[in-house]
Write a structure and sequence with these properties.
heterodimer; A: alpha+beta; Mth169, Chain: A; three-stranded antiparallel sheet; 2 helices; B: alpha/beta; Rossmann fold; nine-stranded mixed sheet; two-stranded antiparallel sheet; 5 helices
Chain lengths: ~80, ~240
Amino acid sequence: MKAKIIVTPKKAVLDPQGKTIRNALEHMGYTGIQAVRMGKYLEIEITGDKETVRQQIDEACHRLLSNPVIEEYHFELE
Amino acid sequence: MNFAVLQFPASNCDQDAMHALRHVLGHSARLLWHKETSLGQADAVIVPGGFSYGDYLRTGAIARFSPIMQAVQSFAAQGGLVLGICNGFQILCEAGLLPGALIRNRSLQFRCEHIYLKTRSRNSPFTSRIPEGKLLRIPIAHGEGCFFADEATLQQLQTNDQILWQYVNAQGELSDRANPNGSLLNIAGICNPRRNVAGLMPHPERACEALLGSDDGRLIFESLMAALQARQPARAA
């Protein structure tokens, strides 16, 4: 199965890339943009029963794929 | 003194650290490849700068799981002295040996220049020999040196006197303009509560000879040497 993982900077963390992208979008004429946060997307191909895979991916997200000091993550299995 | 200087794929300040320790300061130092599992007879460990593992995923994120870092964890747990410089600081934060994290510079620019540091705490093995009030002029070279920690951690850093160095202007004043990367509280370097592990973004190993524009970085290594010398009689007894 495939784990689709999204890692984003926490709200309290400064995200200069998101801010720069927002400015660029505004300069291009897009209106109504409230905020842009830039994160990462990972896909992991993995085999095993769903519950074990869920636990493994959750642990991997916590230990390596995200840094809990500055980032949040969520993932889907399909 | 015997220094262990770690070497990861894409470390690039390892040789600068070796040069400063061996040829300028006259100590014995050896390089340890990241796949080693033991530090051997090391009195102190330097985690040097660079772009370990290409900075993939996050700076320092992969390096912290390398075999040699497990040895560094035990060494630090026993009270051994560990100094992380630039990428080394990022690795120590990722490893949980130091609090907080280093994120992308607020300006999004890679900053490569000399800056001024104020020593906020002289109560550490990394700062004891820095004269009171002396500003250190030391180079930085990083794109991800913005120190971040949550409010509670920042409070702890201040309460425990763990902030060792802050970015200041040439007059020694803390200001936004003197802050090259957006670090909270202008933090350039910190230590752990036990005060045996420290990290900083600036490069003291590149500022050990007047020929290079500044030898202020020597004061940090000389503090380290003094701390190690003070420890030796205790070990012999």
